[in-house]
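Re-running Protein CDI-like to confirm reproducibility after the cluster update. Everything else is unchanged from the original entry.
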Amino acid sequence: MTLANGNAHQVTNNGDVSKPFKIFVGYDPREDLAYEVCCHSILKRSSVPVEITPIVQSDLRKKGLYWRERGPLESTEFSFSRFLTPFLANYDGWAMFVDCDFLYLADIKELTELIDDKYAIMCVHHDYSPKETTKMDGAVQTVYPRKNWSSMVLYNCGHPKNKGLTPEVVNKQTGAFLHRFQWLEDDEIGSVPFVWNFLEGHNKVIENDSTTFPKAIHYTRGGPWFEAWKNCEFADLWVKEMQEYMEEKKSNAN
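Result of re-run:
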C-alpha cells in the first residue's frame, strides 16, 4: 500500500521536478508499529507531497523481484531488498530509502533541498562501530565499513550507475558490494548532515548548537517497540508519536 499526503505544494528536486517525492520504507513484520510511526512522522511534518511505499519482502518474492535466501547476519527482511529502490522508482527522478526504525522530527522538504544532481546517491557518512554484540530483539550486531550509510539514502534513480542496480544484481551481489556502494566511485556519493540519520546511542546533541539537533532519529540498536529498548534515548519522542498515530487511527475508524 502506498501512502500519500494531500499537500498542494510541489516538491522540487533540484528545482524542476513537480512530482510527489517518492519514499520507500523498509518493512519487517516484527516492526510493523515502527513502520507506521515512521510514516506518520514523515507525513505529519511534510509541507511537500510525498508518496510512501513499504518495501515488503513477501510481496517482492510473489512478483519475482526478490529470490535470494536470507543469510544469518540479516537483521531485517529489507537488509538487501532496500537496494531495489531505483528499480521500484522506475529509474526516474530522486527517491529516498529509509529503514523503518526512524522517527522524523523535521520537514522532509528540508532534506530534498539538499539534493545535488551531480551525485548518484547522497547519505550520512557515518563513522560507526557499535559496542553492542546484539541489537533489536537479539539480532547479531555486525561491524563493517560504511555501516549505517545504507539505512537512509537519497537515490538519483536515473543516474547511469544506478541503472545497474537491477533485481538480478540485488539478488546475486554480496553484502559488501551493496552496503558499501561498490557500484559507485567515492566522488559519486554525496554527503548529508548527520542530523538526518542521528544514531541513537552514538551521535550526541551539543547544548546550544542547533546543527547537532536531530532531524531524524535512527533507533539503530533497537527502539521502544522492543521491550529491551523501551528506555533508550529519545524513547519519549517515539512513544509520543506512536500515541498520536494510535489516536488518529482510532478516530479515523469511527
